Amino acid sequence: MTDNTSSYGFQTVRPSEKQGRVNHVFSRVAKDYDLMNDLMSGGMHRVWKNELITMLAPRSVGPLNHLDVAGGTGDITFRILEK
Hints:
By secondary structure, this protein is mainly α. It is built from 4 helices and 2 strands.
């Protein structure tokens, strides 16, 4: 790997090519992302996320804001909004 190449899985690609490949993978799995998490965690990821919301105790008044970084399908954000 040089300055002109980047690692992508088991391949070496041009850096300009890598982002497009990453975008393609995520666009292919996005619609099944939560189902995949259900299968891999036995549904526990929903329990963990609900517990996170309980711990955050979001409220609709006041200056407190929340930022969901790398939020996947945004299901944590939607939980915060529901509270």
